[in-house]
Specification:
About 30% of the residues are buried. The radius of gyration is 24 Å and the shape is globular. Helix 3 links the parallel strand 1 and strand 2. Strands 2-1-3-4-5 form a five-stranded parallel sheet, with helices on both faces. A two-stranded parallel ribbon has the order 6-7. The protein is of the alpha/beta class.
Length: about 325
């Protein structure tokens, strides 16, 4: 604690040092930095020395795998957004019981967030070597029903991680031909989770599947750690998953942006409309005009999500209107 400063100033300095250490950690030292940050956050919280605008947060994790390292990364990631998280972890493989039992730690505590984290092979037994699709349909319904029940009675935010294929899928060529294979059953389960989330405002899906796809299964999973400690994620995947979970909570708590303000030249199209003319700007089905067209498609998706688009440009209005109204690739 710095001498000569009031407690609020010292508390802010301590918090800033925690966040700075997390952000400056090298790629091979991220988990160690997250572990230190989690301990430091706990010490500040328990001593009552949190800065005034840092919000305490209680997180429950229901899991089918070891999640202690992930919990520390969640605390570190949430600290960057000025949340002092305390993470409580349920018993390994005890998700259904802790959801349904009124006396479980989940319902006895006052939690703001509940994270449900399970591997596909734990939710859907035998899914990667199936002989019949019917048992998998029942397993999907059981898991989704548990998640729905949790969201209906939990007072805070429920984040359920969707399912992903493992690093190695046996007989992949055969699996592609079978409707009962994990490839299709996992997709069916994830669709059902999305359907449940669409009807419950306090239920959101953490897209673990897309994170695996983005990183690649070989980079995302650690078979060694899974065999040794029931902890399936690589040292690279753990902070990435923690960040994704954090982003979902921050989005839930924070009023989202409502609009995007855009320039026109070299933004919605390549070139300068006032100099290059309608036929001279870069916008179309080939490079580089395809880049601008793809950007426009992404903007169109944001409109469908409810955002407003506006233009703030020095262009002549008539020139801009001509592009919008007459350019065939606009």
């Amino acid at each position: 604690m710095l001498k000569g400063k009031p407690l609020t100033g010292a508390a802010e300095d301590n918090w800033t040092s925690i966040v700075d250490a997390v952000r400056s950690a090298s790629s091979d030292a991220v988990l160690a930095a997250h572990n230190r940050a989690a301990r430091a956050v706990a010490e500040l919280a328990h001593s009552g020395k949190l800065p005034a605008n840092v919000e305490p947060l209680r997180v429950a994790v229901l899991r089918s795998v070891t999640a202690e390292v992930l919990a520390n990364s969640m605390v570190a990631s949430l600290a960057e957004h000025r949340f002092a998280a305390e993470v409580s972890i349920g018993q390994l493989g005890n998700i259904a019981h802790e959801i349904l039992d009124d006396d479980s730690f989940l319902h006895a505590g006052s939690f703001n967030v509940c994270v449900v984290l399970a591997l596909a092979e734990h939710v859907l037994p035998g899914v990667f070597a199936p002989s019949d699709a019917a048992p998998q349909d029942e397993a999907i319904e059981d898991f989704v029903a548990q998640v729905r029940h949790l969201a209906d009675r939990f007072p805070g935010l429920v984040i359920v991680c969707n399912l992903a294929l493992p690093e190695d899928l046996l007989a992949p060529h055969l699996a592609a031909q079978s409707l009962a294979s994990g490839r299709y059953v996992v997709a069916q389960a994830n669709r059902r989770l999305a359907e449940a989330a669409s009807t419950r405002p306090n239920l959101v899906v953490c897209d673990l599947e897309s994170l695996v796809f983005k990183m690649g299964a070989e980079r995302f999973y650690s078979q060694r750690d899974m065999m040794a400690a029931m902890q399936p994620f690589s040292a690279e995947a753990i902070p990435a998953l923690a960040q994704r979970l954090t982003e979902l909570y921050v989005l839930y708590k924070t009023a989202p942006g409502k609009g995007i303000v855009l320039d026109c030249d070299n933004t919605l199209w390549g070139g300068i409309i006032g100099e290059d003319g309608l036929s001279g700007i870069q916008l179309g089905e080939t490079y580089p005009g395809l880049c601008y067209q793809q950007f426009q498609r992404q903007l169109d998706e944001l409109i469908r999500l409810g955002l407003l688009l506006a233009i703030n440009s020095k262009n002549n209005e008539a020139d801009v209107n001509q592009v919008f109204e007459e350019h065939p690739s606009m």
